[in-house]
Description:
Layout: H1 3-12, H2 15-25, H3 33-98, H4 101-229, H5 236-247, H6 251-261, H7 264-272, H8 289-310, E1 317-318, H9 320-335, H10 354-364, E2 368-373, E3 377-380, E4 383-386, H11 391-407, H12 416-422, E5 425-427, E6 430-433, E7 436-442, E8 448-454, H13 470-516, H14 521-594, H15 596-661, H16 664-679, H17 681-692, H18 699-702, H19 711-724, H20 729-732
Parallel strand pairs: 1-7
Antiparallel strand pairs: 2-8, 3-4, 5-6, 7-8
Amino acid sequence: MNKKEMIRLTALVGVATATGVVAEANQAHAATTTTTETTNQTTNASVENTQAAVDAAQSTFDTAQTSVDSAQANVTSASNNVTSASAALSSAIANKEAATPENIALATSAVSAQAVVVSSASQAVSEQAEVVSTAAGVQASAQAEATSASASLSSASANVASATSALSAAEAALTSDQSTAANNLSAAESAASSASAAVSSDQAAVDSAQAAVASDQAIVDAVAEVQSSDVINMSAGYITALRNYLANPSSANAAALQEVAKGADYVKELQQKFKSDASLDVVVDPSDPAVQEALSVYAVNLINQLRNQYGLTTAFGASANANVAALDFVKKYYDDEDWNIFGTTGSDGRGHNKNGLDAYADQLNTSIAEDAGSGLTTWVNGKATMATTTLHNLLFAVYSDIATMLFDDGGTNNWSHAQSIFEDGTILGTGGFNNVYLGVAFDKYGYAHYELYNATEGNQLGNNAYSLDVQTAAQALLTNAQASLASAKASLQRMTTNLMVAKAAVVAAQNQLAALENSSANDLVAVTKARTQLASAETSYQTALATYKQKEEALKKAGDNLAAAQASLEAAQATLATAKAKLAELEETVANLTNADQLLAAAQAAYEQAVANLTTATGNLGAAQVDLAKAESQLALAEDTAEQAKVRAAIAAQVDQQLNGSTANGRQSAGQDATSLKTNGRALTATVATASAAKQKQGANQGRLPQTGNDDQEASTMALVGLGMLGMATGLYGYKKKKLTK
């Protein structure tokens, strides 16, 4: 059957039913609603029946497939059995060929010889077993003796421990009271020593505080006098020349200022006027807060006197915070960096540390200017030497530096030091100096640094300000020193009392020790007895230890002998097992040769049975495959029938809907639609052909379906099919059949 015939048959399967339904519609709705419902029930029942047939055919197909799989497995198994039987037959044939009388005789002789070997090996195993048994007995006896020796050793060790404990207790009893008394005496002596050291320390503190009071009293007396007498006076000509220079630092004004200032000669004249007093010759530390306070107040008062002479009303200040900042700056950027501002000769110095000034100004968020002087260093024959650090030296250094800044500041300095003293609101042309506080510090080379800070609420450099009244400031120093002295004296008194108590405790402890020296005779006897018992216990322990070591060595030797005997037994048993295996192999060879005919017959029969079984299994597989093909064909036919029943049911439902829902005009229109569908039937047939062409596998079975009409009827009948397929044809023919093959 060609494709065209297959398409036609597929399309005409439900034509008869469709034609009948449309004919009823053309009889002017003569049938009742009951008749229409009956038609629908009939078509629906047809769908259910055909689906049941499909399910039954599917079940038959699955059963047939299972049978084919089972038959295939049987064929495989039978084929493997044939292969195995063939190999066994070949072996039996070879055995038959080798079963000559000569070979049988040789094999029998080999069996007899191997039996002798087995008997000899068995005898060796029996003999070695007796050796093992004997060695095991020796090892058990050695174990018992070692266990007994171990128990004796443990007992001796316990006796040693007990004797040691007894000796320790006796010795402790002997020394306990004496040790306690000696410890008490030692503790008392230690406390007395500590108390004595504390007294000495507090006495030194009192002495130091008294010296501080004397030193501060000297500062109070001398600084005030020096401050009042050490005044630097400027002439009217100098003031005028300085003002002219600061207003216009020309060469001519600089020369005029140098002429009026008189230079180094006038500085020497001023230095000679410095008040020298023996009370100032006390050694002090330049970084001591009291000394720093005196120096900064002294320097600020000198500068403010000069500013008053110059006609300025704003004064510099001095504070503890400014002094702390000066000490910190000089240590960080001069001492720690080994920065020698003047060098060793005055001409080889590094000058001001400008980077340090910038960094410290950023750190404090303020403006800083620095003046520096020779300080504690005097210049002798071009070489700098460090002078003695006394209060006189420090005050003279400050006085001399300020005088030098005023009258010997020409040359490369260009009067910059004088400018820093007399400018108001600016220093060296830099603004931000409206509230100047001075800090004084000396570097490790002995040079003096005068740091000028602009104090603000933010940097707090003006906090803890000093009184510029020298007498008041000096009296405050003296008051603090006197308070320190009073505190030191009170502490000395307490330590002296403690020392007296500690000495009394030493005497009591000495008396206690003397009283206990005659009470230890019984304890000494007990110690002697305990030592004798310990020596006896240690001797017994050493004897038990020697016996234990001897028994342990014997046990180890017995164990080694037993292990060696067991190893020999295992070797003999292995030899016997090998001989027995060889004997069994030879006996099997004799049996095979002797029974060669029977073995060959059995192998031949087994091979033939295996071939017969393979033939049967192959036949069963062919029959199962035939049944599977039939079941596959029946399933395809049932599925096509079910599809056609679904088409008829859909057509009936569509016709019923149109008949029940239309008026007389509607029924006339339906007849016209049917006529129109006849005209366009070929187009619908093409749609059905497209869907059926996908069912090539079922085409052969469809040839057996009933055929009605001819080619001329095909267009009209397919038009009727289209009446029921409006809006659903493509969806119905898109149904996908279940796959038949696995």
